[in-house]
Design brief:
single chain; mainly alpha; 11 helices; 0% strand
C-alpha cells in the first residue's frame, strides 16, 4: 500500500511539473472569453484533456512492452528530463480563442500536442498500474487547470519542485532502459541494476545545475 501511495505521489508530481506549460496555454486560450464562458472552457477543456491523456497513457503502457521500444523511450525520457531544466518555453504564439467552442478545442489540442512527455513519463513510472495512472492524472490535471496561475508561479518561486520532478524522470529513464532486458544485458553486462538509474538522475540534475551556473548573473 505504501509503495502504491509513493507511486501515486510521484505521478502527481511528474504531471504537475511537466504541465506547467499546459497551464499557461489554458490561461491564454480562455483569456478573451467572458468570465462565465471562461469557466466553462476550463471545465470542458480539462475534462477533454483528462480523458485524452488517460487513453494515450494506457496505450503507451502497452506499447512500451515491445522490445527495444522501451530502450528508445528511456533515451527520449532522459532528453525530456534534461530539456525540462534547460529550456524556457515561449507561448507567445498560442491562439487566444474568442468563442467557447474554439477555446475548448484549443485547450484539448494544445494538451494533446504538449503531452508526449507526460504520457511517456507516467506510462514508464506506473509500470502497468492502470488504476494509479487514472487517479494520478485525474487528480493532478484539475489542480493544474484551475490553479494554472498558481502552478506556474509555484514552479518559478520554488524551482526545487522542478528539480525533484526532473530527477524522478531521470531515474525513471534509467529504470526503463534496464527493463528492456535484452538490450540492457547486451550493453551493460553484469552492472548492478541500481547503477544506471542513479547515473541518469545525476546527468539530469547536473545539466540543470550547469545551465544555472553558466547563465547566472555576472556581477561587475
Amino acid at each position: 500500500m505504501l509503495d502504491w501511495f509513493i507511486l501515486f505521489l510521484q505521478i502527481m508530481l511528474i504531471n504537475i511539473v511537466l504541465s506547467g506549460d499546459n497551464a499557461v496555454v489554458i490561461a491564454l486560450a480562455s483569456k478573451n472569453l467572458p468570465l462565465h464562458q471562461r469557466k466553462q472552457a476550463i471545465w470542458w477543456g480539462a475534462f477533454g484533456a483528462i480523458a485524452l491523456r488517460v487513453v494515450l497513457t494506457v496505450i503507451a503502457v502497452y506499447v512500451l512492452k515491445v522490445p527495444f521500444i522501451q530502450a528508445l523511450g528511456s533515451v527520449l525520457l532522459l532528453w525530456i528530463a534534461i530539456k525540462l531544466l534547460i529550456d524556457e518555453e515561449d507561448h507567445s504564439n498560442v491562439k487566444q480563442a474568442t468563442t467557447l467552442g474554439k477555446a475548448v478545442s484549443t485547450i484539448i489540442l494544445a494538451d494533446f500536442v504538449m503531452s508526449l512527455d507526460n504520457v511517456l513519463a507516467i506510462a514508464a513510472k506506473a509500470k502497468g498500474e492502470v488504476g494509479v495512472i487514472i487517479l494520478g492524472i485525474g487528480l493532478s490535471i484539475p489542480i493544474i487547470v484551475w490553479g494554472s496561475t498558481l502552478v506556474v508561479n509555484l514552479l518559478k518561486q520554488y524551482p526545487i519542485f522542478v528539480y525533484l520532478g526532473a530527477g524522478i524522470l531521470g531515474y525513471t529513464a534509467g529504470e526503463m532502459f534496464i527493463a528492456d532486458e535484452k538490450l540492457a544485458t547486451r550493453l551493460l553486462g553484469d552492472i548492478s541494476h541500481y547503477v544506471l538509474p542513479i547515473v541518469t538522475t545525476l546527468i539530469v540534475l547536473a545539466s540543470g545545475l550547469l545551465k544555472k551556473w553558466v547563465f547566472r548573473p555576472r556581477h561587475t
